[in-house]
């Protein structure tokens, strides 16, 4: 069984993230979405709220589960028995960052990272954009999955 983790902050989860998971499900039998506790990034939405929101999106789809983790990403992958890390890239900055992470994770845990390019129409969508809109009480429905609208 091919298993991947999709790690991230998901603060909040956007249609860009949703699309990566759905496309990842064509490659993997199971995806664990891992919400990492990030000591550096300041969180906007409480981590439990993010967990509940993402669980709501995937409902009882047995191919997806959502967990909070508080350790190295490679250790989390091992914990859930995943052989792959799934990530998305939008631009060259993402590419540089993802390449470094992929190399580190390969060295630390002998785990392969699979990168999917964003759909061009989602390339500008980020959690930061959605957070900014929220903070000004603007409509975010174009940027979040249907079940969160
Ligand atoms: P992190 O804080 O680890 O970067 P994010 O929640 O910001 O976590 O993103 C998780 C993953 O989703 C990253 O690989 C990121 O590049 C990817 N991602 C975010 N937005 C998009 C998008 N619009 N299209 C494709 N991939 C995306």
Overview of the structural elements:
The protein is an alpha/beta fold and 149 residues long. The chain is built from five helices and five strands; from the N terminus they run βαβαβαβαβα. It has a five-stranded parallel β-sheet with strand order 3-2-1-4-5, sandwiched between helices. The longest helix is centred in the last third of the chain and has 18 residues, at 92-109. The protein is globular. The termini are far apart. The mean pLDDT is 95. Residues 8-10, 14, 16-17, 20, 87-90, 94, 118, 122, 125-127 line the site of adenosine-5'-diphosphate.
SSE inventory with pairings:
Elements: E1 3-8, H1 15-24, E2 30-36, H2 47-58, E3 64-69, H3 73-79, E4 84-89, H4 92-109, E5 112-117, H5 127-135
Parallel strand pairs: 1-2, 1-4, 2-3, 4-5
This protein binds adenosine-5'-diphosphate (ADP).
